[in-house]
Design the sequence.
């Protein structure tokens, strides 16, 4: 059995000041696991934030290659965690071993991907405008720009991805790549998992000679507010509920020095089923949709929570087929008891609404989530009924039938911001409904064609973000290499001597970067 101390991580050391202990639970049975954790005190949160601030100056000035070494070392440590680690994650989350093993690969892969970003150097955004002493009516001095880390970042662990969106997840990887030390708030649903992953990060930090305080982690309730309000923290990464994200945004905005919160919060991810596709492969679409709705017990932020189609016998048949598939689904254990309570409450609200009809799904009872299909009157979208805009986090989806193209347009305009929107169509559909794309571009961060939104590739081009309430800042993404942008800011160097310039901006181009020089991209020396 792994040695889990259950103490807070501060400046490379372990700490437990207060007497309160927090218990890790088996997600399936609810029984106590043999691990408990120290509730962080406000003083410990203060020390953790100050440790991150103390490490910032040294860490951000390390070469990109040195920081890449650190990220690669974290990835190697994660890959070396054995089957006993996987077993603990499974017990804390009720997720199967294959899912955890796959997620661990994604997590170490994210670290290696950001290491590649560091080595290629484009994240620095180097721009150089050379002096023009002869310019009239006034000469121009030498002006150069690059980006640096914003400072210590507070990261909140997500419940639904105990590895890929948690301790060593995408926000942590992006912040560390940007040169920003991290203070991580462990999620209460998988504290033992967080402890073991944090130990792996610290081993990597020691192996690569990183400054003490480059990574810190605290356990417990109430610590999030202390973190966000701490003057040393300069940005926040969060994945969770709309209520939680909104609260953090308000706290951050009310500080003496406001800071950005990059929160991924709520999305119902509409799937629009177009007529020719419905006619030719409606049965297949119904089966595929059922698989996407129920994947991981519906506990994905990209779960397809709404289906939209034009009124027709074909759409009615698709809903009938989909309902049969969902009726046959076995109950699934959710990540924790709180998640089940939230799911049950969401279903109760849908059942109670006069404009929403329950079409299929076994009666929700017991300690497992049952897949559900509802149908809502389109007027609820047209009138922006808040219930239809709320994410039900679990294996449930709501169908909306529109009467014509004008109503389809109006229904989509009635949607709030989303992470994704999906078009299911044949080539003739996609041509005839091309007018949907500009509309969807204003509503979502990712548009899919003939796929399903569950499953987010980690790559340069991915966008996992979108207009509010999908995220608190639609200009960023929490997945993909563009995620590093959230934790960087530009600095301009005017009329600087060569010897004092950062390496990335020197004439000799010692890092071999692709830079914008006098408006032209160049990889050479100046």
Sequence:
């Amino acid at each position: 059995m792994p040695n889990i101390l259950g103490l807070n991580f501060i400046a490379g050391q372990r700490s437990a000041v207060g007497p309160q202990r927090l218990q890790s639970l088996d997600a399936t049975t609810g029984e106590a696991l043999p691990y408990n954790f120290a509730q962080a005190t406000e003083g410990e949160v203060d020390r953790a934030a100050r440790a991150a601030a103390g490490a910032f100056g040294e860490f951000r000035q390390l070469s990109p290659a040195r920081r890449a070494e650190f990220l690669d070392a974290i990835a190697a440590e994660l890959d070396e965690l054995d089957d006993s680690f996987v077993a603990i994650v499974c017990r804390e989350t009720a997720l199967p071993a294959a899912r955890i093993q796959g997620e661990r690969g994604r997590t170490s892969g994210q670290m290696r991907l950001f290491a590649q970003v560091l080595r290629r150097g484009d994240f620095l955004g180097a721009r150089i405008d050379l002096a023009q002493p002869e310019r009239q009516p006034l000469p121009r001095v030498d002006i150069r720009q690059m980006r640096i880390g914003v400072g210590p970042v507070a990261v909140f662990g997500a419940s639904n991805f105990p590895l890929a969106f948690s301790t060593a997840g995408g926000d942590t990887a992006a912040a560390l790549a940007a040169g920003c030390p991290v203070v991580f708030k462990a999620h209460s649903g998988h504290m033992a998992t967080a402890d073991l992953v944090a130990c792996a990060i610290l081993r990597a930090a020691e192996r690569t000679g990183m400054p003490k305080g480059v990574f810190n982690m605290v356990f417990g309730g109430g610590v999030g507010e202390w973190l966000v309000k701490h003057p040393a923290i300069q940005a926040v990464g969060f994945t969770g509920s709309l209520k939680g994200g909104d609260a953090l945004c308000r706290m951050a905005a009310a500080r003496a020095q406001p800071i950005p919160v990059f929160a991924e919060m709520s999305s119902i991810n509409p799937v629009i089923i177009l007529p020719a596709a419905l006619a030719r492969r409606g049965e297949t679409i119904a089966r595929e949709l059922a698989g996407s709705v129920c994947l991981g017990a519906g506990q994905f932020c990209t779960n397809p929570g709404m289906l939209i189609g034009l009124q027709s016998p074909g759409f009615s048949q698709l809903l009938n087929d989909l309902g049969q598939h969902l009726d046959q689904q076995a109950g699934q254990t959710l990540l924790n008891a709180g998640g089940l309570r939230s799911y049950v409450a969401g279903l109760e609200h849908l059942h109670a609404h006069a404009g929403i009809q329950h079409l299929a799904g076994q009666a929700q009872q017991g300690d497992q989530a049952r897949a559900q299909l509802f149908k809502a009157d389109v007027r609820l979208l047209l009138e922006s009924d808040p219930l239809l805009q709320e994410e039900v986090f679990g294996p449930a989806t709501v169908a909306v039938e529109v009467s014509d193209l004008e109503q389809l347009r109006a229904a989509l305009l009635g949607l709030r911001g989303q992470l994704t929107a999906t078009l299911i169509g044949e080539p003739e559909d996609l041509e005839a409904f091309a007018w949907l794309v500009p509309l969807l571009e204003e509503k979502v961060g990712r548009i899919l064609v003939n796929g399903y939104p569950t499953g987010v590739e980690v790559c340069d081009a991915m966008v996992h973000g979108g207009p509010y309430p999908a995220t608190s800042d639609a200009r960023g993404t929490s997945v993909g290499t563009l995620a590093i942008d959230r934790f960087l800011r530009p600095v301009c160097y005017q009329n600087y001597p060569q010897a004092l310039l950062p390496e990335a901006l020197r004439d000799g181009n010692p890092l071999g970067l692709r830079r914008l020089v006098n408006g032209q991209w160049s990889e050479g020396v100046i």
About this structure: The longest helix spans residues 97-120. The CA atoms of residues 292 and 452 lie 7 Å apart. The longest strand covers residues 32-38. The mean pLDDT is 96.
